[in-house]
Amino acid sequence: MYTNTRGFLPAYINCIDKDETYHGLWWLPSNPEDKVAGVLYLRPKGGAKLVLIGSFKNEFAHGPDHIFVEHEVITGQIVPGGHIMTLVDCKEYEWKSPMFQVSKATSTQKFRIDNLVFSLQTESTPKFQGFEFATTYLLDWVAPDLVDSNFDFKAPVLTGAAPKKVSFKYRNATIDINSWVSPNFNHYKEALPQQASISIELEHEITVRQFREEYQRPIVNLIQFATSHLNSVTFLKVTPKGAKDSIRVVDTNEFDQITHASESIVHHLLFRLDDLTDDISTFIVNWLDAHSTFQHIFSLYFGSRQVKHQFPVLQFLNLIQALESFHYERESTPLLSSEKEQFNNRKLTIMNKIQSSEDLDWLKTNLNYHTQLRVRLVELHSEATGSLADLVGDSNVFIKRLVDSRNYYTHYNPKLKAKAAVGDELFALIYILRIWLDFHFMNKCGIKPEKCSELIKRNSFYDSVKSITKQNKYWQTPRHQ
User: Fold this and answer.
1) Are 113 and 89 in contact (CB under 8 A)?
2) Rounded to whole angstroms, how far apart are CA atoms 224 and 219?
């Protein structure tokens, strides 16, 4: 069902969680007199698209000669109602016009829209200094116990706790994690009107796109990591420099809009904010730094978890590549130094026995040290033994299975097929790789190894994986005949 413009109430639009259709007049800030009728379509899966019944263009070309344009801003006025809406980062993807009568009036022009900004007119991409947003499961992570329940003679009495706030500095920003009970709190209602948000105040102005890349996306990924659930941004408010009132922005590019918490996730949480005790700000700052430095690794990790119906082989390859890349990005370690020293000593011994200068030159060029995947996995496993010991059986057998499976699914050499994991065993490897990365991400951000293992083992997901590996007796020490 489409919602027509008559019921348009911009105060209630925080995200695209259902199909909406809005009619209006649209124009470019550089030419406000040239208004074009059009329809804005909002779709949870398809994002925002503007279809103009006409065109902003004055020059036309068909076929391969047509050049698609981009506009920083398109402004519109919803009809009826007169509400102003600003569309930011608009990319043309289709233009049509009859061959026999090419004109602005007979054309249709279509745009994909990145962001919707309400009640703001601007000639260029707007910049803001203050930002506030929330996600689907933010409250579950931040403050699950803001309301206490007691009983009197008639009904349960709910008591709201004082608001909570965690504040810290990160680069040129002040970040606040807020949780509170709604001021409309009714002591006899069964509903728990708890709320939470994250606000960020910058020392300078940035665009919404910059904010999402530098702050919002890393923080949303952190909440997804901690809650073990896909999160969507449920609202975003921005504040221009010097202004008191905020403006709402709707992101149209959410991959999968989950705007309402659909279940209790208490048993699925990897950790809550309170589990970080006195190291909350340190952990989050380390996470933001790591997200920037290891962006490719986080993309592999979250990509394997966010994309529904992804092929198991692709999940496996993404996760093991993330683990290998994580090790590669670290500084030299004692094990790597020892392996490299042994290689160089053996190479020198071989070269001393060769008389031909041509052969020596070939060896110097082609025989160089490359860290094997097995060596990387052995070292990473040794650091996470406390979290993995109950899952992997014989670590040597387990690591060999990982390496063989990676080699087969990368090259598809028929000789390696019998050595690769398939079916339930492949899924078990995927689950353990997730737990393995969970450990190293938490440890990298400042949580001690013992605490990492404690948080991982209390999660119901860990118990499920442990049950699967024990029942199927995967990766056991081979028996000698």
Assistant:
1) yes
2) 9
Instruction: Determine phi and psi for 174, rounding to 5 degrees.
Output: -110, 120
User: How far apart, in whole angstroms, are the C-alpha atoms of residue 150 and residue 131?
Assistant: 37
- What is the pLDDT at residue 2? 32
Count how many Cα atoms sit within 13 Å of the Cα of residue 462 in the half-sphere of its side chain: 20
C-alpha span between 57 and 71 (Å, rounded)? 12
In the block, which residue shows the tokens 């009826």? 80
Query: Encoding tokens for residue 312?
Result: 């198991």
In the chain, what is the straight-line distance between the N-terminal and C-terminal CA atoms, in Å? 68
pLDDT digits (tens, 9 = 90+) for 82-137: 888 899 999 999 888 765 556 666 788 999 998 888 877 888 889 999 999 999 89
SS3 state of residue 245: coil
Tokens 């339930």 — which residue?
A: 424
Locate 335 and state its tokens.
Answer: 């094990």
Give CA–CA dist 299/284, Å, rounded.
18
Phi-psi category of 228—alpha, beta or left, where left has phi over 0 and alpha has psi -120 to 50?
A: left
pLDDT of residue 234: 87
Q: Which of 377, 370, 372, 419 is nearest to 396 (CA)?
A: 377
Q: Kindly indicate the confidence band of residue 214, based on its pLDDT and cuts at 50, 70 and 90.
A: very high
**pLDDT, tens digit, 9 for 90 and up, residues 170-197:** 999 999 999 888 766 555 444 557 789 9
> CB 321: neighbour CB atoms within 10 A?
18
Which residue, chain included where needed, has tokens 């033994």?
Answer: 385
Q: Is 14 helix (H, G, I), strand (E, B) or coil?
A: coil
DSSP 8-state assignment for residue 234: E
What is the rounded distance in angstroms from the CA atom of residue 305 to the CA atom of residue 313?
Answer: 13
**pTM for the whole thing?**
0.82
